[in-house]
Amino acid sequence: MTPRRSVYLAGPEVFLPDAPSVMARKAALCADFGFDALVPGDNDPAVSASPADGQGVSMAIYRANLELMTLADFGIFNLTPFRGPSADVGTAFELGLMTGLGKRVYGYTDVVGDYAERIPAKAEAGLGGLRRDQDGWLVETFGRADNLMLDCALEASGSQILRHAAPATQRLRDITGLAACLAQARADLFVSAA
Amino acid sequence: MTPRRSVYLAGPEVFLPDAPSVMARKAALCADFGFDALVPGDNDPAVSASPADGQGVSMAIYRANLELMTLADFGIFNLTPFRGPSADVGTAFELGLMTGLGKRVYGYTDVVGDYAERIPAKAEAGLGGLRRDQDGWLVETFGRADNLMLDCALEASGSQILRHAAPATQRLRDITGLAACLAQARADLFVSAA
User: Fold this and answer.
1) d(CA B121, nearest CA chain A) in Å
2) What is the pTM of this model?
3) Could you give the CA distance from residue B22 to residue B26 in angstroms, rounded to a whole number?
4) Which of B1, B31, B124, B176 is the most exposed, having the fewest neighbouring CB atoms within 10 Å of its CB?
């Protein structure tokens, strides 16, 4: 019998009012697929209880999450747009970190459109056919779900950002994308179902 | 004579209409401090010329940037808010990647306010004194410039996000923060001025 593999669950759902129950449901789904879920320490009272101030609390959360990502066999990243057209920057940072650590990574988003579709374009056509936003900043039109670094990190790891149109009320909470990532991870890692 | 150290210059200025000249100016500043600048391949025709489609172009850029980050001795990250209240997700990903690779990292932003100040808060007070946005999502109030993972990655590396109020026209182009990072890197790495 091989030891169970562990998966770090990154995503902005830690900021939801019902984060603990959402994370518990996602962790249970990981167990259904035969994996141990490692959940970010943002909502863990044991992590945030001891430091006296915001600086200390945030550093304690950072160190807890860094340790979990170092321990995890692989990561699954909820790349659903958060407070703007792109994924949560904390999640993007963690995708980079686990990529740098040489871990396998998977990701999903609760919206199906390309990144470029979420950026209002300038009325006039840009020079050289390049699409630009209201500020004149270039809009990547590569058919990607987000900034190319995110999509391509997953592609380089043998996967891609899995897109599913979740109902608005289930945004960030939906488990369809997570389940698809877990199924792919199980196939890749030859893990038997629990 | 020791070999010159190289620095990867990450940031959303690659999306500016005048990106090549902005990057050239920033690279020249690095040289003034005795460092060789490694500039992302986004605007390099040699990187984006050969692939036939957007998927191929984006993967070529990803691989070029990954190689530069692997080669670089350290990284400096322009974490100025981009298309929302947070840093560019591509830059956040790269900060994570170089952190995962064990490289020293520095960062700056062209705005001085805390992250929490850029998120419209809900009118009513949240439960337990927690600040929440219009969607009910938690707003981190740790006195940080952005999501705690970004600030704390720099703090764990011995630095912090350096904040400077750049004029609006110089947003993303300003070199004050970059110069401060370069000065700190030179002190840390005991590099003589060119």
Assistant:
1) 12
2) 0.95
3) 6
4) B1
Neighbours of B190 (CB within 10 A): 7
CA-to-CA distance for A77 and A47, rounded, in angstroms?
22
Judged by CB atoms closer than 8 Å, whether chains meet at B96 and A94 is answered as yes
Helix (H, G, I), strand (E, B) or coil at A157: coil
- Pick from B59, B137, B151: which is nearest to A58 by CB? B151
Name every residue whose Cβ is closer than 8 Å to that of residue A53 and which is 6 or more positions away in sequence: none
Banded model confidence at residue B128, pLDDT cuts 50, 70, 90: low
> Of B125, B131, B72, B118, which Cα lies nearest the Cα of B97?
B72
**Is residue B132 assigned to a domain?**
no
CATH of the domain at B25: 3.40.50.450
DSSP-based three-state secondary structure for A106: strand
- CB atoms closer than 10 angstroms to residue B177: 24
For an interface test with A, the pick among B71, B109, B144, B149 (most A C-beta atoms closer than 10 Å) comes out as: B149
Structural domain includes residue B118:
no
